[in-house]
Write a structure and sequence with these properties.
23 strands; elongated; 633 residues; 24 helices; alpha+beta
Amino acid sequence: MKKKRYILIDAVVVLVFLIFATRLISLQAVKGGYYREKSDLRTTRSVELIAPRGELLDRYGRCIVKNRTGYSIYIQGRTKNNAQSLNTLINNLFSVMPSFDKDLTAILPVTFYDNEYSFTVSEKESRRWKKENNFSDKAAAREIVDKLYKRYDIQGFSDYEGLRIAAIRYDMSLRGFSVANAYLFREDAPIAELAQIKEQSENFPDICVVPQPIRDYPYGSLGAHILGRVGALNAQEYEKNKDNGYTMNSSIGKDGVEKYLEDYLRGENGRTSVERVGSSYSVSQKTETAPVAGKNVNLTIDLDMQLACEKALEETIEEIRSAAQNKSGGNGADAGSAVVIDVNTGDVLAMASYPTYDIKTFGSNYNKLLSDGSKPLFNRALAGTYSPASTFKILVGAAALEENIITPEDTILDTGKYTYFKDYQPACWIYNQSGGTHGYENVSRAIRDSCNVFFYETGRRLTIEKINKYAKKYGFGQKSGIELSAEEKTGAVASPENRTKSGGIWYPGDVCQTAIGQSDTLVTPLQLANYIATVANGGTRYRPHLIKSIDGGGKNAFSSQPEVLDTVKLKKENYDAVTNGIRMVVTEGTAFNAFLGCNTSVAAKTGSAQTAGGYTNGICVAYAPFDKPRIAI
């Protein structure tokens, strides 16, 4: 009896097991695809909520870069994506988004025109791109497109449509598109176009729209080279930052302050659950983790001064170009830079580079900006190096006085031609222009008149070694120490050693050219501004700053303080001799007309640097007020 009872229990257990096994086989093997599809059509996914970046403010707290709410379109992955369905979805998105402004050639540098595929970049750039993306170095544009069409099963579309789909599919593969990693198709989509997606939801399965903070620029292109831009991570940036909470859909500071202060500005992203039913639009959202905004940053920039600086720079260049009769007269003028510094702290109050660009349209205009001969992406203030020309005479005059080579009262006769060397006899600019001379000049009048012969002789007596000693103290031939040092050039100081390194020969007469700011000396506009600020304040060279303070939640996490890098102390009589000469440039010299009617006392020095291309670069350094200097430019 007992044995029969055990047999019955075993039979029931086996029966129950068979029922469960049969059901599992039915669910997984027989109807697995069906239920997988149902699961894909009704599921809750976790989507990253992007944290607002910290705002960038001017020195008085006025907002220069802020955030606004926009809507980003994500393509969600399924357990098993159907290639053709995905291609159709992408094409449908393009069809309702005529304003789509993402530069697809930045992903796939190929265009279709006149029934031909061709690269949108130079042959050198195309080879580099093919190497980086594992294509044959000899592959033509058509071959690459054909491979992508085959890889992504792109068929049934026009050449134009297919190329767009190929670019997006390729970008999706680069960014690890999967069930767990949605693809950011577009940031900041217009509301009208989003409405069409909602109305035609059956054509847009797997689309998720998430509100996200978008960088906003109330003043357009203002300070573009200082502020920098934010963009999607590339593969190299992702590898470097993936362990710090970044995903392939994350944005990162690319240059300027946005890059330098990335760790402060980025904030902490959150997560939200997004539920979708069938192919319908997103129906519910529930925040899992709220994002934490990045820290606000006060720059040293004065918004009003930056606006005025950029406006004056553009208007001056246009005025030079429109008034010129030929290239040598100035109609080739197409670029410039200006930097304004607080002489008593090193704070950069304005920094402009012209031409500039609009950060908002950078992505859609990238190739155009890159091919523009006037180089609007180039930050001339930090990375442009130019001969200082006659502005360098201030340094030579100050050095000669302090080294007792001359006194404030000593005079040198301008004979038109400098005849110290038998085989090299450079002339004064006034002699070349009219055959005249400046007569006897002391250091103040020589600065006023920019007398070349005076500085040929003074520089020769001073020697190249002592000129370079003071050049270093004034900050030339080295980085200034500003926060954006990665984007800054060091420039160069003329010397026998540097000439030899470059494969040239140094001649005794080269010291004369160095003394008037020509030869091999190259400086940046920022270095020039800090140089004249050092002259103005009596000889203290500060580290230039762009960052004033960083918000630390009710208190400053960081606040910059004036930092002295070097000093060039001049005796009072020497300082007066040099600065009186700089003042006379404005009251009766080469800058008289430029400052006519100015209600502030200004000291300035102009310069004209000859370039290898036969052009002349116009330069001016200045500070004000003369009696109690506050700003240098």
